[in-house]
């Protein structure tokens, strides 16, 4: 990988917390995520025998376990893409016996595959954390033959939200709370939680392929008790929980998660 894409999410390169959780999910030790179940429900009408599937931003391939659980007989070919060796190396170890699985290091902004390499592509909880959705959407449309499914926050208007990180709450940065903003007032280390307007998101899709069909589906598939019971919800400041209104919340942010289903 020659080019490193500009993004805020580099902190996950070293962050072993997500890795451990994903690894336990991939091994079937931790339960399937609500978001994985929702992907399977939406894709159920679109999956065919021998389909090839790209999972962009795959961690250790925990979504593959969800595909296997429901579609073991369909001989699906799964490719996981992620920029970080930490994730890819662990994923390769976990899935080494499975001949239908591949893991590749790479960026959703420049997917290292030819046009129409996959029948279906998924990209879940990635676009909200990176600076621009244009390259990722162009690339996902380019490498996919039939269906792209993206999960990301969508609202009437866009918000650019930065969660400012410091060493008190996030052990992967050395920046102390007293230094968290530089002299110009910019955060030194941060993570985006961008919310995109439906209008902008759809216009980016249509810019690269005006013939596709686009459907926005609000993510209300989840079962509240399966999200809020988790130990990490109580321990981690940025773990997702469901509030009393039934909305998904990360610390004090309401995250209006949607699925964007794109059919070619
Ligand atoms: C919040 S996790 C989501 C994991 C999984 N897709 C899910 O929904 O459970 C974000 C994932 O995207 C990966 N990622 C971050 N930047 C990326 C990029 N530019 N291209 C592809 N993947 C990226 C991270 O390494 C991480 O595995």
The small molecules bound here are: S-adenosylmethionine
Going by helix content, strand content and strand pairing, the class is alpha/beta
What proportion of the residues form beta strands (DSSP E)?
15-25%
Distance between the termini: 29 Å
The second-level CATH architecture is: 3-Layer(aba) Sandwich
In the CATH hierarchy, what is the superfamily? Answer: Vaccinia Virus protein VP39
The CATH topology annotation reads as: Rossmann fold
**Number of contiguous helices:** 8
**Overall mean pLDDT:** 91
Low-confidence stretches: none
From N to C, what is the helix and strand string?
HHEHEHEEHEEEEHEHHEEEE
Largest sheet: 8 strands, mixed
Please tell me about this protein's structure.
This protein has 264 residues and is α/β, with parallel strands linked by helices. It has one domain (15-164, 190-263): Rossmann fold. Helices cover 27% and strands 24% of the residues. The protein contains eight helices and 13 strands. The protein has helices at residues 16-26, 34-43, 62-71, 85-94, 134-143, 198-208, 224-228, 231-235; strands at 52-56, 77-82, 101-105, 118-124, 144-155, 162-164, 190-192, 196-197, 213-218, 240-242, 248-250, 253-254, 257-263. The strands form three sheets. Strands 1, 2, 3, 4, 5, 8, 9 and 13 form an eight-stranded mixed beta sheet that branches. The chain is globular. The two termini are 29 Å apart. The model has no long low-confidence stretch (mean pLDDT 91). S-adenosylmethionine is lined by residues 5, 7, 9, 12, 33, 35, 56-57, 59, 81-84, 87, 107-109, 124-126, 130. S-adenosylmethionine (SAM) binds next to strand 2.
């Amino acid at each position: 990988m020659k080019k490193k894409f500009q993004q805020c999410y580099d902190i996950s390169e070293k962050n072993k917390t997500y890795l451990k959780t994903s690894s336990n999910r991939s091994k079937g030790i931790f339960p399937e995520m609500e978001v994985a179940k929702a992907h399977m429900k939406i894709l159920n009408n679109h999956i065919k025998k021998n389909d090839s599937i790209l999972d962009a931003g795959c961690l250790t391939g925990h979504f593959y376990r969800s595909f296997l659980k429901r579609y073991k007989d369909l001989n699906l070919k799964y490719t996981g893409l992620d920029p970080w060796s930490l994730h890819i190396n662990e994923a390769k170890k976990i899935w080494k016996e499975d001949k239908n699985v591949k893991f590749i290091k790479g960026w959703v902004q420049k997917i290292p595959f030819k046009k129409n390499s996959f029948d279906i592509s998924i990209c879940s909880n990635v676009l909200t954390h990176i600076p621009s959705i244009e390259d990722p959407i162009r690339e996902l449309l380019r490498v996919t033959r039939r269906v792209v499914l993206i999960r990301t926050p969508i609202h009437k208007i866009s918000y650019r939200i930065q969660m400012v990180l410091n060493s008190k709450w996030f052990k992967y940065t050395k920046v102390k709370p007293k230094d968290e903003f530089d002299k110009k007032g910019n955060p030194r280390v941060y993570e985006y939680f961008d919310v995109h307007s439906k209008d902008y998101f759809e216009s980016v899709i249509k810019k690269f392929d005006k013939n596709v069909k686009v459907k926005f589906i609000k993510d209300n598939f989840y079962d509240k008790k399966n999200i809020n019971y988790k130990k990490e919800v109580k321990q981690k400041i940025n773990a997702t929980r469901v509030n009393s209104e039934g909305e998904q919340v990360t610390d004090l942010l309401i995250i209006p998660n949607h699925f964007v289903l794109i059919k070619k």
